[in-house]
Amino acid sequence: MKKSFIALSVLLAASQANATTIANSPYEGKTLVTAIQYDWEPLSYKNDQGQPTGYFYDIANEAAHRLGAKLAVTSGDFATVIPAIQSGKFTLAAGLDATPERQQVVDIASTVRAGYQLIVLKNSPLKQDVKLSDLCGKNVALLASHPSTKTFEQISQQCESSGKSAVKVSQFPDRGATWLALRSGRADATLGYTGENGWLLQKQADLKRVGPIFDTVYAGIPVSKSSGNAKYWVEAINSLIKDGTYQKILAKYGVEDVAIDHSELNPGK
Fold this sequence. Notes:
By secondary structure, this protein is of the alpha/beta class.
């Protein structure tokens, strides 16, 4: 019992040491209005106690602590997040894909790198090493306006050019409908975001992920470009990576495969 108490004391001391403020932080002593979306499990959502959680939130929260600040969370409509950051209504958001278009209007401190992978039933004939070019004649269930729609359009063209049947893409309004299409046999596969697949498959034992990871992109913490403060978030995230806090957060949600070696400002331009 004494050894356990000593070990716990050491861990607490280490945690307190890791919470040191980043030098010259412009956020020292401030409360930062942060937009998150509560329907994005396990990236950001509410736990059973109604508190914000998820790995994007946890990383942003820990980074804020190292900047000497705390977060005040608000649920922001996805379409209005960037304008709200530009106007100063929000200081940051807990997670945003770092597309070139977005990096023109906000600065983004990279947090993870993720893409998409095929999700199939465990008894699916599609094997672990399946290629996207093997999907000719197969039916893939996607969310409406999914960013990978163009990828499958290109694959379909390649299939038809080689005399094979096109990939049949069926689009649905929500995730539940894509899972139903897969389980009912109306679709051979759907897509899972690599930033949630580990978490998802822990809860849905009849599914598995196969094939390559594709359409990958960096995602991170966006802040106002005019503020010039994104570099401090990069420094804070790198401090989390250096001492292992970052890796522990991702492991908690089963998404270690989206880890990056270091954070950078406006990645992948």
